[in-house]
Specification:
It contains 5 helices and 8 strands. With about 180 residues, the protein is α+β, with helices and mostly antiparallel strands. The strands form 2 sheets. The chain has a 4-stranded antiparallel sheet. A 4-stranded antiparallel sheet has the order 2-7-4-5, with no helix packed on it. The relative contact order is 0.16.
Length: about 180
């Protein structure tokens, strides 16, 4: 078996294991930075709500300005986020996409198009799962910290990019 076939087999095996084995799914979610502040008791419940999805290279998880229908946490791989056709960030293993769905009273649109960089495995939480979590104040207390930390991390990244752009503009003499 060549190296690429072995990688494909490992990817498929991991995806299948995450679907079929709740203990492996829990352990994998536990290793994600997003779920770090969530206690085990709640993570087990959340893990049971997760739908394991695989996305292959160049497949969209979300499209800019389309209604956000799910929340994702990347379990394996990376995705790239584009705003108005320009690369604005990378979402790595353990990070989330679509967290705005937790804060919207109604429909909310995606702020970016997110595309699988190669192959990714993600935990998907559809609207029904999110509604179930939002109906439970204890669950949301656990998730609020995770969501706020994820948003804070994204804000820090945006601030660094703005700072870099301003510095580049100043160095190029365009900031005068």
């Amino acid at each position: 078996m060549d190296e690429f076939a072995a990688i494909e087999d490992n990817f498929s095996s991991l995806a299948k294991l995450l679907v079929e084995d709740s203990a492996v799914r829990f352990k994998t979610l536990r290793s994600c930075s997003f779920f770090a502040p969530v206690p085990d008791e709640w993570l087990r419940r959340i893990s049971d709500m997760a739908q394991i999805r695989t996305f292959y290279s160049d497949v969209c998880l979300t499209s800019q300005d389309d209604e956000t229908k799910a929340f994702y946490v990347i379990l394996h791989g990376t995705a790239e986020a584009y705003r108005n056709g320009k690369l604005v960030g990378t979402i790595d293993t353990g990070e989330c996409i679509g967290e705005g769905v937790f804060f919207a009273d109604g429909n909310i649109s995606s702020s970016a198009t997110v595309i699988a960089d190669y192959k990714i495995i993600a935990a998907e939480f559809n609207k029904a799962a999110i509604d179930s979590l939002q109906a439970d104040a204890d669950a949301m207390t656990c998730l609020d910290k995770a969501l706020l930390l994820a948003l804070f991390k994204k804000l820090q990244g945006a601030n660094r990019k703005i700072e870099k752009l301003l510095l580049t503009k100043a160095i190029d003499g365009k900031g005068e």
